[in-house]
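> forwarded from #structure-qc
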């Protein structure tokens, strides 16, 4: 299993299991990466920090239309397709160090030929991810992103998730965005998609430290239901993006790209931590 280190920071990547980060610490051996303790241990969707490609979140009933054709994906979570086709598969080394590649599984798992690339870079206080999805023979719709599971409790402190968004997607009875938005209502627990971000989302463990979840994406899914973990997920589109007309059209030779940085900031010595104001900070 590849292990990256830089000063006090250490990260482990399981390339056999979706190229996911399974361990991350920046100081004093404090482990930040977690899992949903209520999910089956074999579930590929409930642990680590894994890339999602060529779609992020759910596709309703695994079905979408593109260029006049309707496509059916395998159903792999409840009645829907979820989190892409590469998070449960082996990735192979690519051209550069700490860069890996995985094909998209055409035609059995995805109807278009292509592949994903992920690069991971560690510094003393940051873990950076770079993700690309490539089409190899015809255009295709795509969204990409990451699904990091952070431990709810670190160093004896409970997580505070903070973000500031202009809009929240409304969900239907399937728990999937229906394409309409409103001002954020912020009802807990969250399993919701937001857009119009006005600040960098963060997770703070008071008196321990903060991870900022920076990204160049425009959408954020926040999931705070589990007792053992919280998720802050940057994405290039909302769940069910192909059916909402919000997926990017990826052309051969012009990949869809995104980056995410997990930036660590230790708590000042002797502080107990505080909750920011403004209505979007919360203890979960």
């Amino acid at each position: 299993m590849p292990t990256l280190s830089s000063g006090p920071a250490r990260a482990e990547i399981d390339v056999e299991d979706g190229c996911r980060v399974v361990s991350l610490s920046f100081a004093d051996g404090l482990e930040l990466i977690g899992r949903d303790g209520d999910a089956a241990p074999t579930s590929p969707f409930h642990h680590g920090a894994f890339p999602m490609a060529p779609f992020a979140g759910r596709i309703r009933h695994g079905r979408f239309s593109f260029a006049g054709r309707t496509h059916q994906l395998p159903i792999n979570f409840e009645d829907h397709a979820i989190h892409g086709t590469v998070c449960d598969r082996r990735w192979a080394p690519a051209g550069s160090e700490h860069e890996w590649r995985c094909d998209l599984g055409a035609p059995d798992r995805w109807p278009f030929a292509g592949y994903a690339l992920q690069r991971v870079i560690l510094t003393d206080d940051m873990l950076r991810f770079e993700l690309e999805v490539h089409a190899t023979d015809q255009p295709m719709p795509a969204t990409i992103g990451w699904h990091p599971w952070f431990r709810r409790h670190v160093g004896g402190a409970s997580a505070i998730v903070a973000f500031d968004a202009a809009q929240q997607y409304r969900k239907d009875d399937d728990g999937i965005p229906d394409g309409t938005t409103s001002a954020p209502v912020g009802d807990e627990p969250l399993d919701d998609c937001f857009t119009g971000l006005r600040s960098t989302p963060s997770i703070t463990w008071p008196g321990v430290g903060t991870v900022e979840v920076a990204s160049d994406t425009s959408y954020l899914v926040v999931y705070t239901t589990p007792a053992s973990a919280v998720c802050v997920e940057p994405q290039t589109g909302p769940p069910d993006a192909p059916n909402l007309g919000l997926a990017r059209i990826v052309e051969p030779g012009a990949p869809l790209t995104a980056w995410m940085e997990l930036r660590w900031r230790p708590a000042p010595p002797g502080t107990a931590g505080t909750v920011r104001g403004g209505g979007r900070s919360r203890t979960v």
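QC bot note: The chain has a mean pLDDT of 94. The longest helix spans residues 241-244.
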